[in-house]
Amino acid sequence: MAPVKSNHDYYAVLEVRPSALRDEIKASYRRLALLHHPDKNFGCSYATAKTQLINVAWEALGDPVKRGEYDKTRPQPSASAGSRPEPSKPKPTSTAQPKRRPSPRPDTTAQDEARAKAQSNKNRQKWLDFEKIQEQSIRHCKKQVKPLQTDVAALNAKITTNREKLANDVPYKWNVFAFLTTRLSEQEKNELRSQSLNADAAIRIKRVPLDKVQAHLQRLESELVRRKEQEDMRLAAERDETARKECVAREKVEEEARRRVAQERARQHAAQEARDREAIKEAERIRQEHARQRAAQEVKNKAAREVAVRARQERIRKAEKMAEEEAKIEKERKKASRAGAQRYSTNGCSHMHKVWWEQVQGRYDCAHCKRLLYTFGYQCPVCATIACASCMHQLKSGRTPAVDNSHRDERRGHDHSARGSGRSTGGYDYNHTPSYDSYPPPPSPPSYSNPHEYDGYWD
């Protein structure tokens, strides 16, 4: 016959582990049966139901065959008042698929704490209910013990009184004061002895329920003390567990704070390293940019220097060419000036010199006084005669300048010092430059028919 499947965990009912031996299960069954027996709890319905469940659990677990069949169909264990049995581990099969691990929920800790708090309250309520029932049982037992103890005490007192009466009833020769008392008759003595025997028999009869009730009271008190110690231990364990959890929570908070500080330091360190790397890259980029700019500037400066060198060489070449051309022109001009002066000295000038004389730069010899003109001279645009300022004024006034060769015998430094000091030679200051206001307006350009006029005008 297949066993009837029950919704109760018999191991939890008997407060034993699934791996407990039969002797342990039997001892726990006897203890719980005595504790929750209806006779001890005055017909309490809870005690009656509890006792029935304990008996059913013992019937299932006391027989090894029934226990083996029960273990195959045993429901999942639930938390009980006195124990937390270990769940049986199912054997893995070849066709079993691995279960997917559920994702952790963020409120798991809070739910666990709530469940633990609810279980603690449930255990506390069970203890309070047990304490209440146990105290009621103890009070009831005490009520049963008290009249029995009173009856036994009364019977003992009666026996003691009868024995004293019989002891005092002695012959006169043994009792000096016997003459003052009344002697008991044999009937009275027999009656006292009979009463003592009856009282002793009643005491023995009453001692049986009294001892039973006292033993039950002692068991109730012992069980109450034991369960109270268990409750105190449970509360102490809960307090220790609460303290441990608080300590773990504090350590977790401190660890989290340290982890956050370490993460923040690592983040700051990484950020600082990133900034340093960026700064190094920026400095390298700036250095490369400066190097590139310096290289470009060097190339530019080199090109500029090459251009400047070529320009300088070109200027030097042009200057040399111009100097050669100027020297050639100057040579031709001097030659023309000497030719004009010679023609003037031999034949005389056929025109008047009342025209605008051009100032020509360079070193010349005056065609009349033969003086050396270091900086510039004056040239007639008509006959190309180059003369000093004194001879030019004399020619313009129609006079003929006197030829003075005395300066050729003088030392060159003396002439220079004379001109440098501002002294006039021959009545004229050669360092003086006449103002343009003292000259007549310039004449119109000469015609190109006369080559000498063209050379004198443009030079």
UniProtKB/TrEMBL annotation:
Keywords: Coiled coil
InterPro entries: DjlA_DnaK_co-chaperone, DnaJ_domain, J_dom_sf
Domain of life of the native organism: Eukaryota
SUPFAM superfamilies (alphabetical): Chaperone J-domain
Protein name: DnaJ-domain-containing protein
Biased composition annotated in UniProt, kind: Basic and acidic residues: 405-418
Chain ranges of the J domain: 9-74
CDD domains xref list: DnaJ (cd06257)
Parts forming coiled coils: 280-342
Pro residues bias spans: 439-448
Matches recorded under Pfam families: DnaJ
The keyword Coiled coil is assigned to this record: yes
Region (Disordered): 66-125, 398-459
